[in-house]
Write the structure tokens for this entry.
Amino acid sequence: MFIFITVGILLFTALVLLVLRFAAPDFRFAWLTAAGGALTAWISVFVWQANLPAVTQLPLWKPESIFRQSPLFIADGTAWAFALSIVTVCLGVIVTAVARENFPTPLSWTGVLILGALGVLAVTADNPLTLVLLWAAIDLAEMIAQIRFVEHPKLSERVVLSFASRVTGILILLWASMVSASEGSVFDFPSAPPRAGLFLVTASAFRLGVLPLHLPYASEVSFRQGFGTALRTVSAGSSLILLARIPFGGVESPITPYLTIFVTFAALYGAWTWLRSPDELSGRPFWMIGMGALAVASALRGNAAGAAAWSCALMLSGGALFIASAESRWMDKALLVGAWGISALPFSLTATGWVSERGGFWYAMPFLVFAQAALLAGYIRMCRRSSARATFENQPIWAKNVYPFGVYIVLLTILLLGFSDWDGALQIGNWIAALAASILAFGLIWLSRRVRLLSPVRAHWVRSADPDWLDAIYQTTWELYRAARRVIHAFSNVLEGESGIMWTLLFLVLFISIFIRGAP
């Protein structure tokens, strides 16, 4: 029941803003309404702790012979951590909107609140049917938003391709459900068959761009600190929740070592590119890939709590950095709390990140630790870019006082999740690996000022219209597909045109002559 209270607050606030948008365009307290609703929803998530776990099921759909399941939601410790992360980032986006040049934007805040409600429902989904419906809603919202802003034809094409990659993740999850149904069992996450584990990992990794390695979205230029951060956070959180629902022993397979190698490469690629990105918004896609790959790697090692911890750190630590758009006193030092959140040191948010429930995969650990170090080093470097942020010269005094609260509440949530009541809290974890990653991170920071290879550069991936080398591979594949499609279309026009019957008779005569000649 508490799930629907939080979702109801978010949707009701969004509805009020939408009505005011058309009924009273000059309403002066739209931001206060949005911030108040988001803050109330954030507080309501803490009320979930009074009744965990709690299961809520909607009435069965008809006919029952087709719909063997109905939407089912569960509020447990893991879902609570994900939901708190999503609502916190949405609250931070709305509060920090006072420091942006396009303030006020009530329509954008409405979208953020709706996305937050969909994200909360997605991370509490307890069966594939519920999650697939919510994934589809989030993906459609993202595609519509991207098509609205992009102008270059190549970017429009990439929007469609990114939507197709996410739909592929949906189809993989549906395939897992069909496999379970063929065995005569109903597939829900608590009682999922062990063989479904790799399907869940693949579906989540495909939507994040980890397997196969690709950017599952178009240019970041039009999606800046506000709506873009909320959209990326909700999309990532709703995809990563699958990793925390993998059944015990569900990733034991002969292909798991190969998947681990691919995921390790994705982590290194995302972390290295993030380390060398000129700013946090240009590097945001690679932050998602790098942190998402660490979460997938934890899931492949049988560490569901670690996967959830990396996922929450992706949303919260990244969210705090991405919404910090204006210069404020102590802001660059406060953002280091986000670095603590991804450090995996004892009692941090990601303390369970390197705990391994399964032996083996020792060959991937050094590379994964280096990937974490590169992500941490890049994060610390970007926290210290206070001079690159905007100032409050043209903002009223109340905005200067309110803005830091939006960032601080995200950082406060990082600390709370390190000590709150869920599986990833109050953990010591593998402190040796965490300490090694921290030392490597400080070494990379020291070297970045002395080694040109580690220095951030404005490389070709920053320009919105030009893909990087990885995108060029997929673009070449797409061009080959389109060339084959044109050949097939031309051949079809020849057969279906006015001379189609003549060509058909000619081929028929050729086939008959070949068969007659080959006969004894």
